[in-house]
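Quick one, T. Sequence first:
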Amino acid sequence: MQQQSTRHAFRIAALAWPILVGQLAVIANGVIDTAMTSRFSATDLAALAVGASIYVSVFVGLNGVLQALSPVIGQLFGARRYTDIAMEVKQGTWLALFLSVAGCVFLLFPQPLLSLAQASPELTEKATLYLRILALALPATLGFRVYASLNTAIARPKMVMAIQIVSLVLKLPLNALFIFGGLGIPAFGGPGCAMATAIIAWLDLLIGLLILRYGPSYRPFQLFGTGFVAPAWKAQRELLKLGIPMGLSYLIEVTAFTFMALFIARLGDTVVAGHQITANFGTVLYMLPLSIASATGTLVAQAIGARQMENARRIGRAGILLAAISSVTIGCIVWLTRGLIVRAYTPDESIIGAALPLFVFIAFYQLFDSVQVTAAFILRAYKIAVVPTLIYAFALWGIGLGGGYVLGLDPFGVAPAALRGAAGFWFGNSASLGIVAAGLLWYLRRVQQRTSRQN
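Structure tokens:
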């Protein structure tokens, strides 16, 4: 039993590391945008922050819907139903197109959302241009997600990683060209980031299509040369049945942190700056359990497709253990080196003082976060997403945000002194992740018992 668990853990790790590297490359694009735009003007940086927050919300929701492709294709791959994979890829492409139309409407006409910021006309104009340029990139970005989902589902993420690294390398010169101007091109400031992103997005999609067309690994799927395939509403409905709750779960996670930041902003610039440093570093750390969760979900889906239910259960258990051990280890390292980490972000002693106490929560909730995300991906491998989404909504919005509001802002005068301020919000968030982890583990056990009886 121990030998099998170790073997599964090595399989998961071998699949997870290229996913992790690719995800870090994607995050680095945002870091580059922020760093380079901050050298152009404060207004452009603010416009980038506002525009990016809207774009991320739109993209995360739509991308979450497309994530339904991975468990579907993973099960088909495990069952060796290769020609059915081609049909799902083509239907997924149609779905990406439909979602792009809906997303572009929000990006081309963002005034209702931008009005909430009550920003200056100049900032609003720049943020509007930024979002409208990204509307041109959205179809390519979602199309590339179809390619990435296929590669992840068949356990071939290295080419996706390679494309993402190349994109990161191209981002620097293209950003410099469009932000600051050159070669006869005027300086666009913050919207220049969107121009670079749009060019890279279409280049990524083109490279992905060429690899699918000529790569020998994809020939068994017969993705090309089988004629035109119209959208099949039954297939679309099945993808949406799984994809919509998945997209909602991603939105719940994003909005929980967004509103958390908005509430903490009431406590002053220094407090919110300390929170931002903590949240940013926490996002980077989250990429490790997320990559392990994605790899585990892929291997579980393949085992389910092959009707190896006991093997699927063992892979899932190995993935949860690997994610938990890795995250707890990193959490301890972060706690011991928290001073060095915060000072790498800022030399301001007041911000350092605001951020350092919050790092205890990063070290503390790593276990909960790693377990919940891995359990969620395993459940998606079983094509189950509705109940996990309800658990997310109850815990993250109700316990996390609601409890954080009561503790952090203390409207009723009942919060302990140690948990007033940003610490109260982080405590509420950590508690909510613990509830999500426990709830998903309980439900996963029920699902696995039910599938074992059926087989």
